[in-house]
Design brief:
globular, alpha+beta, binds zinc ion
């Protein structure tokens, strides 16, 4: 996930772990277990990430249980988080401060990411990245593509598939993986106040996972 920061405003694809994101520069330069941060002042951030993972497991099932959590330095400093190879990477630079919440609130104001409601930046970014995992596993289990998941949701709303992202956020328009990830963060942070498109997508994700 990217921020509309001073640098480029571009987002992050779902590839991490040294892979180059197709549409972005989400290359992980270095990373280590996020739990290492607990004794070094990053405890509340790490707790928020883990609680979000646990809450999403309650809602969507066990596909996020064994997620590997890493604190990472990205080549592109505007990258907030990434997902790839069953690993969730969170930008290390935000772990010991509250900046990420401010960044996400500003991004929501700009329409680039959904509102984070009463949640923190760590929680919203975690929900987004785990949304990548959910979309990936849901598509695999149902033998369909992530686009198909968005399409199924679109048909329940009478919205064109290609317009679904635009009903969620600017970044959700990037590709169908990002559409699902943004829908996941939107529904997690805003519940019944999330965009109709987000709620419909996460209903389809749930169905495909079951
Ligand atoms: Zn993403």
């Amino acid at each position: 996930m990217g921020s509309r920061g001073s640098s480029s405003g571009r987002g992050v694809g779902k590839h991490g772990a040294g892979m180059e994101g197709k549409e972005t520069g989400a290359t992980v330069k270095s990373s280590h277990y996020m739990t290492d941060e607990i004794g070094e002042g990053g405890g509340s951030f790490v707790n928020e990430v883990m609680t979000t993972r646990d809450n999403l497991e309650q809602i969507y099932g066990d596909s996020v249980r064994d997620l590997n959590l890493q604190a990472a330095t990205f080549s592109d400093g505007s990258v907030l988080g990434a997902y790839g190879g069953n690993t969730l990477f969170m930008a290390e630079r935000y772990i010991k401060n509250t900046e990420l919440t401010n960044v996400m609130k500003q991004a929501a104001k700009d329409g680039y990411h959904p509102s984070i409601g009463n949640f923190s930046g760590a929680e919203a970014v975690t929900a987004h990245e785990i949304g990548h995992r959910l979309g990936e596993v849901a598509a695999q289990r149902a033998g369909i593509s992530e686009k198909d998941i968005v399409s199924r949701a679109a048909s329940t709303l009478g919205i064109k598939t290609e317009n679904m992202g635009g009903h969620i956020s600017g970044y959700a328009r990037t590709n169908y993986g990002e559409t699902i990830a943004e829908a996941c963060a939107d529904v997690y942070c805003n519940g019944s106040g999330a965009a109709r498109a987000s709620r419909a997508i996460m209903n389809e994700v749930k169905k495909a996972l079951s």
